[in-house]
Amino acid sequence: ESDTASEISFQFNKHKKTPSIGSHSSDMASVSSVSGSVLSVYSGDFGSVDAQGTVEFALDYDEKNREFQVHVSQCKDLAIVDEKKGRSDPYVKTYLLPDKARMGKRKTSVKKRTVNPIYNEVLRYKIEKMVLLIQKLNLSVWHNDPLGRNSFLGEIEIDLASWDWSNTKLNWYLLKPRSLSAVNGVDHRGVMSLSIKYVPPGSLGPKNPPSGEVHIWVKDVKDLLQLRPSGVDSFVKCYVLPDTSKKSYQKTRVIKRDTNPVFNHTIVYDGFHTEDLKDACVELTVWDHEKLTNHFLGGIRLGLGTGLSYGISVDWMDSTQEEVAFWQEMMSAANEWIEGLLPLRSL
C-alpha cells in the first residue's frame, strides 16, 4: 500500500529489557513517526516579526480541467526581517485546510531583497469542486532563509464554501497574524468510538495468558472528512509503537462510501509485561482507500504521552490529555473493558 502520509522508521540499539509486543512475538526495536506532509502549517517558523502589509491575489476554478487556481500577483509593505540590511526575501505558500496531508502545499518563487515582491504566478490544485467547497484556503507569506530558518510575515484564510466564485479579479487583502485555529491544530476530523482492555499474564489462571495482552475493539467512526463526491472508503490501521514491523501491523476491512463507518473489529496484541504499558503507544489511524494511494484522514495515539519510550526521546509519545486518561484508566482496571469516544487528529 502506498500512503500519502508516508511512514518513517529508524533503528536504535536493542536493550536487554526491550520486550516483544505484537499479535505474534515481534521486536520492539524501531521508532516510527509520520512524515512532514502532516506537520503544522507553521513548521519551520523561526521569525518573531509582526505581520504587516498586503497581498494581491485572485481565485478561480477551471471547470473543464477540474483545477483550483490561486493567482498570486504581488505583496506590498511586508515586514523587514533583517533590520541591519533592511531586507526580506519573501515567498507565498498555500495550503488547503484541513486536508494538508492529501493536498500538500504550493509555493511561489522567492523574491530577494524586497518588501514589495511581484510574482504573477498561478498555484494549481487538481481537485473536485464539491471537495474544494469543504476546504479553507490558507495563504501565508514567508521570508526565505538560506539555512531554512524561515520567518512568518502574515497570512489570510478564506472559507471556500462562502467564496463568490464569480469574482475572478485580483483583489488586495490585509495580511494578519497567525490564525489560532491553525496554530492549535483545531480541525475536526471525526470521532472514534472504541474500547480497550489489558489482561495481565496469569490473571485468568495458571500461565493463562502466558504473557500480557492488550485488546483493542474499534467500534465505529463518526464524521470523517469526505475527500470526493462518491464518499469515503475508509479503514483503520493499528501499530503498537515502537514496533513498526509487519508483525505489529493490523488493519480493519474497508467500509465503502460511508463517512460514519462501523468496523466492529477487535485486535489483540500479546507479549506485554505490565511495565511495558508505560513505554508503548497504540497508534490507530484512519485512511481513505484508493487504488493507487491511501489518504490519511486522522488518528489517535494511546499512551502516557511522556515523550519517552524505554528511555529514548520519541516524537510519537505525544498523546493528548484525553488519550492519556483513557490509557491510564485501562492500566488501573485490569481485565475490564474501558469505553472511549476520542477525536481524530493530525499526527
UniProtKB/TrEMBL annotation:
Principal cellular location given in the protein's record: membrane
Gene Ontology MF term list: neurexin family protein binding
Protein species of origin: Herpetotheres cachinnans (Laughing falcon)
Keyword Repeat: yes
Alphabetical keyword list: Cell membrane, Exocytosis, Membrane, Repeat
Alphabetized InterPro entries for the sequence: C2_dom, C2_domain_sf, SYTL1-5_C2B
Family annotation (Pfam families): C2
Localization annotation: Cell membrane
GO biological process terms, semicolon-separated: exocytosis
Listed name of the protein: Synaptotagmin-like protein 2
Record has Zinc-finger as a keyword: no
Superkingdom of the source species: Eukaryota
Domain C2: start-end pairs: 51-173, 188-317
One Gene Ontology CC term in the entry: exocytic vesicle
